[in-house]
Write a structure and sequence with these properties.
Elements: H1 9-26, H2 28-86, H3 95-148, H4 156-163, H5 170-189, E1 191-206, E2 209-222, E3 228-241, E4 244-253
Antiparallel strand pairs: 1-2, 2-3, 3-4
Helix pairs in contact: 4-5
Length: about 260
């Protein structure tokens, strides 16, 4: 018998069974590691996919905003284009044309100013002349009226005849016929008269002719009686012959 210890068969079987159990209990650990390793890439993939989806959503939203902004700009451009098309195009004046037009405009303005000044001067002169004619005619009418209606008994012939020198037209003949009756009556009845024009108002003023209304007061004395005052209104017309104003019409107006 040798010195090495030999295990009996029954013992060897038990040892083998124990070893097998030990190996089975130890083998599941690698599977768990493998499962954890396998799960980690899957989670990473899922995270990457989620990030990709988020990025795609952001990109899609940005693209939608850009499309909407482009559409808004396009609509604004179309609206502006339509408004521009509706408005008539204003031709741009050329510099050469403006250079040529400026002297023409200035010349036209100068002509207008000259004409305006001329018209104003003419109107001023005409007004001055009309005022002068009116004043001269009114003064002449006062003098002529007082002269032809005033007389003394002793000098009636000379006075009334002298008044004829300041009359013209048909009125000269009418007045001559009147004084041919007044002069004999003044001598026979010792009649004397004094007349004055209280007021005079012009009706119309024309070149060389002035029409007016005269308010006359005449005092007539017969013999030794008290003078009798007689007011009257007459329409008179004076015309200018040469440098003199002559009475061409004198017509009493009924009161």
């Amino acid at each position: 018998m040798s010195g090495r210890h030999t295990m009996p068969p029954a013992g060897r079987r038990k040892a083998a069974a124990a070893a097998a159990e030990n190996s089975e209990s130890a083998s599941p650990e690698p599977e768990t590691v493998e499962e954890s390793i396998a799960e980690e890439p899957a989670a990473a993939v899922e995270s990457a996919d989620a990030e990709s989806v988020v990025e795609e959503s952001v990109d899609a939203a940005a693209e939608a905003d850009e499309v909407e902004a482009d559409e808004t700009d396009a609509e604004a451009d179309e609206t502006e284009a339509e408004e521009t098309a509706e408005e008539p195009a204003e031709p741009e004046p050329s510099r050469a044309r403006s250079r040529v037009s400026l002297p023409v405009v200035l010349g036209a303005l100068a002509l207008v100013l000259a004409l305006t000044c001329g018209v104003l001067r003419w109107l001023t002169v005409s007004e001055d002349q009309s005022a002068t004619a009116r004043d001269e005619a009114v003064q002449a009418a006062k003098e002529i009226t007082a002269q032809m209606l005033s007389y003394e008994t002793e000098t009636v012939d000379q006075q009334l005849s002298a008044a004829r020198d300041r009359m013209t037209g048909d009125f000269l003949g009418t007045y001559t016929a009147m004084i041919n009756e007044v002069i004999p009556a003044a001598h026979a009845q010792q009649i004397a008269a004094v007349a004055e024009v209280l007021r005079a108002g012009t009706v119309s003023v024309k070149p060389g002719s002035v029409e007016m209304v005269l308010f006359v007061n005449q005092s007539v004395q017969v013999g030794n009686h008290m003078p009798q005052k007689t007011p009257s209104v007459a329409r008179a017309t004076l015309v200018k012959e040469g440098d003199r104003w002559l009475m061409s019409e004198y017509e009493p107006v009924p009161l």
